[in-house]
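Z., the sequence and structure:
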Amino acid sequence: MELNEGIAATIGRTPLVPLKRMFKDAPFRVYAKLELMNPGGSAKDRTALHMVKQAIKRGEIGPRTTVIESSSGNLAVSLAQICGYLGLPFICVLDSRTTSYHLRLIRSLGARIETIDKPDPDTGEYLPARIRRVKELLAEIPDSYWTNQYENPDNYLAHYETTMPELRQELGRIDYLFCGVSTCGTIRGCSERIRDDKLPTRVVAVDAAGSVIFGGDGRAARRLPGLGAAIVPKQLRSELVDRVVYVDDLACVRGCHDLLKTESILAGASSGGVLEAIRLIQDDIPAGSVCAAILVDRGDRYWDTVYNEEWTARLAEKPLANESVAGSFSGGEARP
């Protein structure tokens, strides 16, 4: 049950890369934190490691415990990897939006997959339906544990303890931190560390058009996982966020393709959205500023969507009805 060696010891300390080509005409500097270089391919490795490690310390996970989680893909991969290393059974509850790549990877790591095919009838979203199934499994399986990324403080504490200190050590001064939001663990941990260390860094949340996290109505459809949520995460502390920028699926695709073309970095959908958010508000960023952008996961998990020419062509030609355009909000009560 030790998580201080082996594959677990390689999590974190990810590279920081200046995006000099993608933002060559900008009067400010942008640095990308490549969380996609974690062994499981995403920032969720930090979350999974910290949640499991702390649960073991508290005695909530033992040598025969079945770990259960709801995930759109990345956390499931990370938990499957860590549980596999520990020899623990792991069940992940996914939905039909999960990419085929994620499904193959999770299965290859030995996890049991439960797929939710129909969204929650009241909200039209998959997340409430996934959580309902998690609770059913907890009732059915003795000695089972829900890591619960949506409410578990160990989610955001992983980033409080590791992600933000790494950024500060590498960059020194950080004027803007751009971070995608979904469960809000990353932005909560980083923003709390910024506050506690009394840093002047402005925190910019990048959310999906159609998300309810910062007060949206949730009506716009979201086809790419990684940004946004159908419920307001309990991890969220909106008072620590200085600005919210909204991006749609097309913006995510555009950012990913531009990053690949200019920097040869193959990143996932939310990373493209984060970089497009910088462009959306670039006129408001003072010259000489240092901007840090967290790129959450690898792009090879999006072969069937972001990097599929037919899929992106359909997305551009036939946007879903009531799909919101990209935009931003600063101050007061957030609205898309």
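Residues 320-336 have pLDDT under 50 and may be disordered. The longest strand covers residues 202-208.

Let me know what you think.
H.
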